[in-house]
Specification:
Number of helices: 1
Radius of gyration: 14 Å
Structural class: mainly beta
Strand content: over 45%
Order of helices and strands: EEEEEEEEEHEE
């Protein structure tokens, strides 16, 4: 079974940076997408970014474009989310999730991205990111 472990959260001042990691295991196919989502207190879960395991295609929500960068190290089965210029309103619990098909991941990233969290098949536990003003 696919398992995801998110880590790297913490307390950071506004304008600062953090790098989250999502360690993944248990895939039976090498074609999958990993997405990052966040949920702020009292708000709906929001999609942040995702990446395809096959060609590295990426998608970013408008709210994080230019500030966040998603990347992957396939040898380590780990996906990273580099977050720069963090804002206080960015305080949230961050989750990573995996999509395993049937749509090819490079197509899924471009067509669905993180717009539909229900399309993701597996979820990791959250990691808290707190941005102080």
């Amino acid at each position: 079974e696919v398992q995801l472990q998110a880590s790297g959260g913490g307390l950071v001042q506004a304008g600062g940076s953090l790098r989250l990691s999502c360690a993944a295991s248990g895939f039976t196919d090498d074609d999958y997408a990993i997405g990052w989502f966040r949920q702020a207190p009292g708000k709906e879960r929001e999609g942040v970014s995702c990446i395809s395991s096959t060609d590295g295609s990426t998608y970013y929500a408008d709210s994080v474009k230019g500030r966040f960068t998603i990347s992957s190290d396939n040898a380590k089965n780990t996906v990273y989310l580099q977050m720069n210029s963090l804002k206080p309103e960015g305080t949230a619990v961050f989750y990573c999730a995996a999509y395993v098909g049937p749509i090819r991941s490079k197509v899924f990233v471009k067509t669905v991205g993180v717009s539909e969290s229900g399309e993701y098949d597996y979820w990791g536990q959250g990691t808290q990111v707190t941005v102080s003003s």
